[in-house]
Amino acid sequence: MTGANPGSDMMIRSSAKRRAQGCPKAPRRLDGFWAIAGLLGAAVFATAAHASPATFDCIMEASLSVKLGSPVASIIANVAVDRGDTVKRGQIVAHMESTVEEAAVAYNKARADSTAEIEAKQAVLDQKTGVLNRKLGLQERHVASSQDVENAQADFNVAKQELALAHLNHHMAEIEFDRSQAELAQRTIRSPIDGTVTQRSLGPGEYVHQEATIVSIARIDPLNVETFLPVRYYKLIKVGDVAIVHPNDPVGGERTAKVSVVDQVFDAASGTFGVRLELANSDHAVPAGLRCRATFNMAEQAAGATGASEGVKP
Description:
6 helices; 4-stranded antiparallel sheet; about 30% strand; Elongation Factor Tu (Ef-tu), domain 3; 6-stranded antiparallel β-barrel
């Protein structure tokens, strides 16, 4: 084999020297690449941290439903409302038979208004007081005996106690009058809430026992909006948060509601938890029982949402 070509060796050494001189430029190009990648990653992370809307099925229900009965067993005299009527708190919805109670009120009112017994006992006391004073005066002049004074004193004491008893009787008559009025008031059934009558179960002439229902009333202002969310959203929802509720047809549109309840117990079978929102409905434009969609704006970070959902799968 012939010896090495001096020209080739020179070219190899020159190429190696150029590569050796160009090596420092590579790290500078990599630094620029990682800087751009870091900026893009930060932008993606910031976008993920912004509030993101999430929509869930829901249903709008009456915030309170009551079944009105009677505190006493009796016969219904009349029912003043019917299904679909709007009632106010304190409004009369039914009357029970109350002839006996009305007579008792009239009797006790007459007794409570009368002061005849007090006046009679006061007159007796005044007379006994005069007798006692005269006996004492005669005793000072040594005309009346001690026995006469003692008898007059005893009569005075009895008259005084009888007057006190008359005052007590009058006070008891006033209490009895108040009691009879309360018994009569029990025969008048009033609505405890503002709402709408959803059902009339009994009518005039029917017997009402203490567990029977005369009418049912639902309060639809405000409405309760009930929904269920996957457990991964648990830490993202709190009482006071605002959501947009979209009622289904025929109501449509959108309304604002506030979170009033966040359940503290999960449903393990479905991997969800309940959320209740309060929806103002002063115009009664939205009926209870209508389905809807609730949209929440939740600040969900990409890593945070994943971590919150670990351990419980929706």
